[in-house]
Design goal:
Blueprint lengths: L2 E7 L5 E7 L6 E7 L4 E4 L6 E6 L5 E6 L2 E6 L7 E5 L9 E3 L4 E3 L3
Antiparallel strand pairs: 1-2, 2-3, 3-4, 5-6, 6-7, 7-8, 9-10
């Protein structure tokens, strides 16, 4: 159950990330579907996720919450790490500069 939006295929082609809105609390979080195991798992649990994108190596997912951008390992191991704080809300999903593996704020 829930509303699934904005699927993103990982660079390795092994996983798909989606934004899932929980019908019980209306919170939107990042979830990852592993194609080989057919398992769907949450990456975030805090809600309020606006957009998301895979890192170039397929190991992390960057996501926006309000005026901040974070990233976390795709299997939710470890803590989320802040990447960027902006004075206004993000309008577009994060994008990556693959050669440098660094995030670039949306234009």
């Amino acid at each position: 159950p829930g509303n699934y939006e904005h699927p993103r295929i990982s660079p390795t082609g092994e996983r798909i990330s989606v934004l899932r809105t929980d019908p019980n609390d209306n919170q939107r979080n990042v979830w990852v579907y592993d194609l080989s195991s057919a398992r769907l798992s949450p990456v975030t649990r805090s809600g309020g996720i606006g957009s998301h994108a895979w890192s170039a190596d397929g190991q992390r997912i960057a996501y926006t919450r309000g005026m901040e951008m974070f990233w976390r390992h795709f299997d939710a191991s470890g803590e989320e790490e802040p990447l960027l704080r902006r004075p206004r809300r993000f309008q577009n999903p994060p994008i990556w500069d693959p050669p440098a593996h660094r995030d670039i704020p949306p234009q």
